[in-house]
Amino acid sequence: MDRTRLRFWALYLTRFAGGFGFITLVTLLPKYINELDPTAVVLPEVALGGLVLGGLTLSKGFVIGMYTTGFTLAQTVAVVPLAWAGDRYDKRLVLAGTVGLGALVYAMFPLVDSSLSFVVARAAQGIAVTGAGLMSLALVGELAREGTRANHIGKANAARFAASILGSLSAGFLYDAFGFTPIFVVITVLLTIATVAIWVFLPPDETTVHGFPFTNLALNERILTMATFRVQYAVAVTLVRTWVPIYAGVSAASGGLAYGGIAVAATVVAEKFTNMLCQPYTGRISDQYGRARFVFVGGGLYGLVALAVPFSPAIGQALALPAVFPVLGPLSPAFLPLVGFAGLLGIADSLREPASMALFADEGTGGSGVASSFGIRELLWRPGSVVAPLLGGYLMADVGMQWVFYVGGASALTGVLAFLGVLVWSHGTGALTQW
Predict the structure, then answer these.
(1) What does the alpha-carbon distance between residue 167 and residue 23 come to, in Å, rounded to a whole number?
(2) What integer best gives the mean pLDDT of the chain?
(3) Superfamily assignment of 210-434 in CATH?
């Protein structure tokens, strides 16, 4: 195996190890809630001059929310400094450091014994996940030739989806059989191997960008055009990806299908599996035929499929599909259409994701700051990913479950239409086929 291929495989391994650790901990989150039994916390009063601070009560719900929000806030804060450090100094060094930090953090999780220590550990995990994700994608984009960039990014993402499938399916079984500690031993070993592979197979990064590349890239015309799509599409994906399993699993009284755990997992795995299979291929053809049209078609298809999800019961009944399945037992005729729609969502996103990532990589390579370009891409996603769960909760509780998917689908469609409009207005009628 030649040296270049080994470099890419080291980065694919890094994506796999990071994805496995992330999804495993997400899967185990309910177990931690049960184990730690979070309760309301009263902040101590602190005298500061003539003022008395503290004394506030943090509700149990707030404490549980911080189990996730601590991770997300740390990610948001870490994006800019980590991306800047990667462009200014050595992306390989930053990648090895954050993956090594991840190994250390996961090794500490079995020692967590309180809500505070869990939130702190989750924040450290957020920093490690952000650094590993940004730097691995930046190095893939930098090492790949322009005509193969989306293909290599698609392969890197496929490794992450494979880890998500394996982690989500195995975490519960391993916990029931062995408890927390052996799971984190596996994750720590994987990340340690990835750290060694990075150090052995990747050369020192000699591309140095002086100054603050975020400033120039924030005014880049192509990135600004992509922003019109990405900000809205973040709402769509966060709503749909979060609420497909919720729709499958919650009670009929709440607007769901009341399926059991295995059936719910099938909807999650279907989306990840088709995305994993398709991304290397869709990345390769977007290298050949242009990025923008794949963003447009993938985003539009995602929106149309999202709009169709609430019609799963009607489709199942119209087609007289089975309502009882081996192993799964009695479900409803909506099961097969819902799994099919989840698979189609994965295919749609596989059209969009490698092309979108390659566009940002294209703008960041050549001395502009590829890590910072991916950092901007990450920041554009944040507002929608924070607002969407709150919006989804309101729609589900006060309007109707189906409206989560209607709003999510509409957000994807308005995103691609805005993208097309700005693309034609700013870059001409041929830009959709030329980018």
Answers:
(1) 6
(2) 86
(3) MFS general substrate transporter like domains (1.20.1250.20)
- Position with higher pLDDT, 214 vs 321: 321
At 51 the pLDDT is 45
pTM comes to 0.84
Cα gap 16→162, rounded to integer Å: 7
- State the pLDDT at residue 216: 77
Spell out the domain ranges in the chain.
1-207, 210-434
87 vs 363: CA distance, rounded Å: 14
Fold match, 1-207 / 210-434: yes
CA angle 57, 61, 64 (to 5 degrees): 110
Predicted local confidence at residue 299, as pLDDT: 96
1-207 belongs to CATH 1.20.1250.20: yes
**Band of residue 52 on the pLDDT scale cut at 50, 70, 90:** very low
Catalogue the long-range contacts made by 72-76 (C-beta closer than 8 Å, 24 or more residues apart).
72/126, 72/385, 72/386, 73/123, 73/126, 74/122, 74/123, 74/124, 74/125, 74/126, 74/127, 74/130, 75/126, 75/127, 75/129, 75/130, 76/379, 76/382
